[in-house]
Design a protein that fits this description.
The protein is an alpha/beta fold. It has 15 helices and 11 strands. The chain has an 11-stranded mixed β-sheet, with helices on both faces. The structure holds glutamine (GLN).
Length: 494
């Protein structure tokens, strides 16, 4: 089926006009029809608009447009519903923006359009990207394609599900503390969070501005490289985007990683890491060694403080960023007798409980008397965490780690215990604190033996995380690609 192709396979067929973008787009729409009632990857999609874009792409190809100029010409993709597309809903998974239509395009949206992509629909997420399971969406939970009783990960769960269930060819997400890498790991696709500043955040609804970064999901590393090349680059409308040239990421996929040094973090092989995940990571390291990489032990001594540091800084920034949703400037208004009542009724009705928890926590750590004890101290620890990485990168070209300590958990398993949910972010949040790039690539499954009723062992994907030096996306993509070339994990389908 057409929707099962990768981007590079599809574009090869589009270029020779063996298939049309309309047919590929229709195949995705049919798949959405078939599976999305159960999996709920999309909050909304507009079939007619997608087909109209596909027809325009087919016409462009007929008049000579090429994929060298427009690498995604005719390729249907999904966008996390926190990235603005002019004229489309922008709900952020929240009731407060349930009726909001974006009046403008994000920079990444403009870039996707310029590259010829078909913008298929709005992918589900945890409300305002706060969460690790997609259970915090006001529009219902997305489900893991490998086992619909389990979470797909989050917060960009819908994006990961859409790619893995072949409802689209690639997707954009945002990653503030792991929200691209963790769902990619739980669903079994590639997910990449670029270096802070690599991709413009203009048009991304802010959660924690110093940590947020837009990135992509795809079925393999090559497609990920294509997507990254399209969305990367300096943007004068985002002062934190960096004027650094964008390399040809696909050209860097040489298959050769001989002599590269890959660090294995001493502090990461800890209690709480599931045995099956540990074994899959160890096997992946052996594979990388076989391919000629040198595995070196490195230390990130401040690892223990990462979760606490992240949840202070992320909530502090969220409390400030979400102040604009007050029923006056933004958000569905609930009227009150005076302005205070209006604010509190609007925000009381509009936000879900996790968002409220974070606003309260963030307001507390920024409040007078506690600012020095929490916020300021967390900023200092953030610097120590970044310095740990910079020091490790004096010895190694990349760092390997699990993406998540366990495979996908059951829906409802952690929703009453926010602390357990937060702790599951242990391996992903440091990269955001340090601003470095990270990706997750499929590296194995739980329950490899046949599941039996006596000993049910669900077959769930496991992800290997590769962390790179600032602007070292090429290196981690090259390692992931070489790994893919010598394994079949990324080809498995639910
Ligand atoms: N799970 C983390 C959180 O809840 C990360 C979320 C994200 O990256 N957007 O904050």
């Amino acid at each position: 089926m057409l929707n099962q192709l990768t981007i590079s396979e599809l574009t090869a067929k589009l270029a020779t006009r063996e298939v049309s973008s309309r047919a590929a787009t229709q195949a995705c729409l049919d798949q959405i029809q078939r599976v999305d009632e159960q999996l709920h990857a999309f909050i909304s999609h507009d079939a007619a608009a997608a087909l109209a874009q596909a027809d325009a792409a087919d016409q462009a190809i007929a008049s000579g447009a090429t994929h060298t100029q427009q690498p995604l010409l005719g390729v249907p993709v999904a966008l996390k519903d926190v990235i603005a597309v002019k004229g489309q809903p922008l709900t952020c998974g929240s009731k407060i923006l349930g009726q909001f239509i974006s009046p403008y395009d994000a920079t990444v949206t403009e870039r996707l359009k310029a590259a010829g992509a078909i913008l298929l629909g709005r992918a589900n997420l945890d409300e305002f990207a706060m969460g690790s399971s997609t259970e915090n969406s006001a529009f219902g939970t997305s489900r893991n394609p490998w086992d619909p009783s389990r979470i797909p990960g989050g917060s960009s769960g819908g994006s990961a599900v859409a790619v893995v269930a072949d409802e689209c060819f690639a997707a954009l997400g945002s990653d503030t503390g792991g929200s691209i890498r963790q769902p990619a790991s739980h669903c079994g696709c590639v997910g990449l969070k670029p270096t802070y500043g690599r991709v413009s955040r203009y048009g991304l609804v802010a959660f924690a501005s110093s940590l947020d970064q837009i990135g992509c999901f795809a079925k393999n590393t090559r497609d990920t490289a294509t997507m990254l090349g399209v969305i990367s680059g300096h943007d004068p409308r985002d002062s934190t985007s960096v004027p650094q040239p964008v390399p040809d990421y696909a050209a860097g996929l040489t298959g050769d990683i001989k002599g590269l040094k890959i660090g294995l973090v001493k502090e990461y092989m800890i209690g709480g890491l599931a045995v099956e995940v540990k074994h899959a990571i160890e096997a992946a390291m052996q594979q990388l060694a076989k391919l000629g990489a040198e595995i070196v032990e490195v230390s990130l001594p401040h690892t223990d403080y990462a979760v606490a540091t992240y949840y202070i800084l992320a909530t502090a920034e969220a409390s400030a960023n979400l102040a604009r949703f007050d029923g006056i400037r933004y958000g569905a208004r609930v009227d009150g007798a005076d302005s205070i009542q209006l604010y509190s009724k609007t925000r009381g009705a509009g936000f879900g409980s996790e968002v409220k928890r974070r606003i309260i926590l963030g307001t507390y750590v920024l409040s007078s008397g506690y600012y020095d004890a929490y916020y300021l101290r967390a900023q200092k620890v953030r610097t120590l965490i970044r310095n740990d990485f910079l020091k490790a990168f004096e010895k190694v070209d990349a760092i390997a780690a699990p993406t998540s300590p366990t495979a996908a958990f059951k829906i409802g398993e952690k929703s009453d215990d926010p602390l357990q949910m937060y702790l599951s972010d242990i391996y992903t949040i440091s990269a955001n604190l340090a601003g470095i790039p990270g990706l997750s690539v499929p590296c194995g499954f739980t329950g490899n033996s046949q599941p039996s009723t006596l000993n049910p062992q669900p077959r769930l994907p496991i992800g290997l995380q590769l962390l790179g030096q600032p602007f070292g996306e090429e290196t981690i993509l090259r390692i992931a690609h070489a790994f893919e070339q010598s394994t079949d994990w990324h080809k498995a389908k639910p």
